[in-house]
Amino acid sequence: DAKTTQPPSMDCAEGRAANLPCNHSTISGNEYVYWYRQIHSQGPQYIIHGLKNNETNEMASLIITEDRKSSTLILPHATLRDTAVYYCIVRALNNAGNMLTFGGGTRLMVKP
Amino acid sequence: DAGVIQSPRHEVTEMGQEVTLRCKPISGHNSLFWYRQTMMRGLELLIYFNNNVPIDDSGMPEDRFSAKMPNASFSTLKIQPSEPRDSAVYFCASSIGQGNQPQHFGDGTRLSIL
Hints:
The complex is a heterodimer of chains A (about 110) and B (about 110). Chain A is an all-beta fold. Chain A has strands at about 10-15, 20-25, 30-40, 45-50, 55, 60-65, 70-75, 85-90, 105-110.
């Protein structure tokens, strides 16, 4: 699976959009981009995933560049409860067992 | 819907003791994963099962660790004998093991070996 690069930390003001970048320049055609987050003392929580097209659900939006070498997770109106470590993971569709490899993630601090 | 259920939530025991961690996956999920998280090494995959069969245990640190999945609704991770360096948070996750379906995680077991 392709490696991802994320900034180690980011701040965001409460109520504003949080835009979390992820670089995956070695991604191949059959690899999906997944986003998880981990709030302190909890297990990782699935947020969203996509292949080529932009995706949106009740939690967030995922914007994938046309060349698929990078993506951005958008939390449209960040709240204090969105403070967490956010992980961007790239995984191949034919990856046996849906294995995930977690990197260091981005620690997002939402401030009042 | 019930998520992945892990027990116990916290375990404190002395080194040399046997430790058993338990996991109940989401009903209908046929893949199950055990992860370990420490400050130094982050989240690491230990082992995963597909249809109750261990597929890849290359992440299991050593022979002191073993995992079983006797049926589709239950798995255990056992450490015997335990050592202080095994102290970590252990997570279980499950997924529908096909296509691009995401994994769903339990809240973990915080293990402290004294």
